[in-house]
Amino acid sequence: MKVAFIGTGSMGGSMSRNLAAAGIDITVFDLNSESMKKPIAAGAKAAQSGVECVSGADVLITMLPTPQAIEGCMVASGVAAAMKPGSMWIDMSTSVPETAAIVEKSLDQTVRIIDAPVAGMSVGADKGTMSIFAGGDPADFAYAKPLFDIMGDPEKFFNCGKRGTGYAVKLVLNMLWFNSFVATTEALLLGVKAGVDLETLRQSLVGSPCNSILLERDILGMLKDGDYDEGFAVALACKDLRLAGDLARSVGVPMEVGATVENVYRRARARYGDKAGEMIPAKMYEDDTNTPLRFK
Ligand code: NAD
Fold this sequence. Notes:
The protein is α/β, with parallel strands linked by helices. It is 52% helix and 14% strand.
């Protein structure tokens, strides 16, 4: 199986490196050639363009930042039109079915399509332990499963249903994570300001009905080292919250908490910049109250 991989940034760089390291015949392309170094060092071939990358490939994996980038790469740059008849496009970006539908118009009708966004942060991409949420035809999942099992945890591969459901699950889970993150930040700040030691507070919450993976694991880098996770840029978090809001509007679901959290994220992005990490809203709370959330 010949694989093409476009978008070797924070996530795609590690994912394509893991595929190359597992012996997969893989060619990579990214507009930023620096970012291709990681997979190339593991044996991937480098292409000079997206069209060259996909030439003769049986499977194309895209891991691009936004729906606009996917459309730009696949339609405007001609990648979709260059795909081999009978091949497969797997979009692992956090995106929406509307963009896939636009791309589909430029694909040969025999090209099969799966949406397979991921979760697990950049560390999950690095270690090959990501969760994968796939929407599409089960026969196509079976064909691509050996690739998914290299990039992600085989136990955390989810058949979400028909095409588009993988995108939907990813948007729902990110919105829930961002909502929980802002709520957790407020809760920790409240307890600390009320005089409780931060680690005592965290451990008490872990031992309570309010426990979460966030409290147990995801937030530790921030509480220990002030790491706001630049592996996932706040600009992309804002993109995901906007897409979740768009989805909520299109299906007619009120999303009051999500809308508030989106505003918190947009305010943090305006203050600290696009490249700040996904946990940067906590720094805004810390700065506003002059209370760093750090273990002693
Ligand atoms: P990133 O910005 O680090 O990487 C994206 C890469 O795409 C960049 O290297 C960029 O140069 C490249 N690119 C953009 N347009 C291109 C084009 N037209 N042709 C070729 N290359 C192009 O982003 P990331 O953090 O790796 O995220 C990628 C996707 O995965 C996003 O949809 C994001 O929402 C999602 N995601 C990210 C994380 C995370 O923790 N970073 C976790 C889960 C999902």
